[in-house]
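The passage that follows is intended for readers who have already worked through the single-chain material. We present the inputs for a multi-component assembly, then the predicted structure in tokenized form, and finally a short commentary. You are encouraged to pause after the input and sketch how you expect the pieces to fit together before reading on.
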Amino acid sequence: MKQPTFLLDGMPVPFEEGQTIMDAAMAADAFIPHLCHHPEFKPQGSCKLCTVKANGRHVSSCTMQARDGMEVENNTPDLNDKRRTLLQMLFVEGNHFCPSCEKSGNCMLQALAYELEMLSPHFDQFYPDRPVDASHPDVLLDFNRCILCELCVRASRDVDGKSVFALSGRGIGKHLIVNAESGRLADTDFSLLDRAAHVCPVGVILEKRKGFAVPIGQRLYDEKPIGQQMERLAARTAKVEV
Amino acid sequence: MMALWEIVVNLDSGQLADVLAPVLDRYRSEPGKLVQILREAQEAFGYLPPVALTHIASSLGVPRARVEGVAGFYSFLHLEPVGRYRVLFSDNITDRMLGSAELMNRMCNKLWLERGKISEDGLVSVDTTSCTGMCDQGPALLVNGRAATRMSAERIDRICELIRAQTLLEDWPGEYFTVADNIRRRDVLLGGERVAGEAIRAALARGSGAMLAEMKRSNLRGRGGAGFTTAIKWESARDAECLAQPAVRYVVCNADEGEPGTFKDRVLLASHADLVFDGMTVAAYTIGAARGLLYLRGEYAWLLPALSANLERRRRNGLLGAAVAGRAGFDFDIEIHLGAGAYVCGEETALIESLEGKRGVPRNRPPFPVTAGYLGQPTVVNNVETLCQAALIAQQGGAWFAGLGTQQSTGTKLLSVSGDVEHPGIYEYPFGVSVEQVLLDSGAGNAQAVQVSGGAGERRFGRLPRHA
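Having made your guess, compare it with the prediction:
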């Protein structure tokens, strides 16, 4: 039997029954921008960056199952324009100061902003007040950079079995919390060995006493733009990347 | 009025456990009842102190972060102390047209308050909230969750005095809390005199397959806004395989009437609750459901005592429980779940998440609720009015229903009319009625614009009647 395929920007992409558009695209080395998606975890479709047009309808490619003969638009000026707007909103909602950030060059948000040619924040900055949590002996939490992707939430709950992280609040008040009455990471059972310690796509969860070990300019996305790193993105696994 | 939370800081863990025990027992410490547990815990403490969340989490056997995440989601759940009197002005355009902003300022000035801040003595806080569904009798407000209507400068001044004197809500003038139905035009739904259970007996006499056929014939479309064909929903849930064991199907009545400007479900629940419950039971019989859930928006908590009493009466009369209406093998019961201030929970998958005791965040679809809804089981989620119409169809048949309204939109529709009109209230018309007719009937002279079906709906300008 012929393997089912769909067309991604005109390119035939084969897929297995039940695979999402994102999964199949990743396997075929085709890049669909994304932030909250990670092949290791259950997709949740919240960042909306991976929105594509499938048979004329806007859908999240990380949650939409591929169908035979489907025509999917991905890398189009219109979709990239919308993605750029989403990125701009993410940038102004938090406090993202790339030049001073330890994650600069390793940050997916920053890498996607370059990839999608975001030249300015466009919107007014919110400058929210989000105190850092430096209570834990090994890990610093800098909430200023949180984009609410819930990767740490999913990793801690589904892999580590700890549920150290959760979201609270709603709308613009939505924020990341930790599993302690004090609200401090030090009072949870979080450990640097947790999977959750190594999934943050931005610079919230940082290892203490290890700064700028690789110089800026030689980092992940300095070497090659994120759009050309599909193989690595698809291969992200449960290995603890300390 | 002396709330327990004033001494909560001094509570030791044993006392805390004593206060929470009855609440936890009532819900058998089920994590799925978390929203209800948090609501009731808050009634005991005035707000949800961190120690209470920790205790609830350990009693339910769930991570504390999940409990805090849920508590932080709903706007009627408070993680910080709030005033012993919490006044929330309904902030809908119709309330504003009636002067709600001025009244709120008046109250803040009288009480020496800043909006959104608790008074220094912890007595009172004043703020706004989303539309409380009293657009036909505004300006409206909620005080400690109780709905008050028809505010005026005089009433606001009196309320300030009552608050300063720390008068119990029960001793406030009763007319402040009067909610009128304001039914202005009745058609087949609001017009008939009905006996509770009549629709159920009619459906039972037809048989579930024939009932479904009548629903198809009626071409009833959902009254919650999306207009999806109800029979297709019912048939999908009826045919869906139960993925979890034990196999149970669910009927959910969406009474999270949060769209600013709508209040028809409020009236149906207040004065036609038997028709709503009949409709739920007919749906249950048709799809083979054993349990029903009514998701009542937190703003309508004042309806809860009457609705609960109604369910009790139906149980006594054999219209709920084992062998409904004497039909062996048809067991069905209904429970009410109170929301806690979250507009998004009107969306059916967010509503289901909330029913499961979670943050009301919409799910990814597919799967749709008809195949994997509440607790992953086949679930029909219908609007209050849709279920009432289904009850009528059970009694009078699909062909009769399809003869009303237009070919595309059959039957009648309840319109919530408010704003600059002489007779705000509920108008039931067969589909196909013109906007002009509605304006004439409601006394909307010189109308310049009409907003149809809520904030996300469409606006109509111009060529409206000069005067009624």
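Commentary: Residues 1-5 of chain B have pLDDT under 50 and may be disordered. The two ends of chain B are 49 Å apart (CA to CA). How closely did your sketch match?
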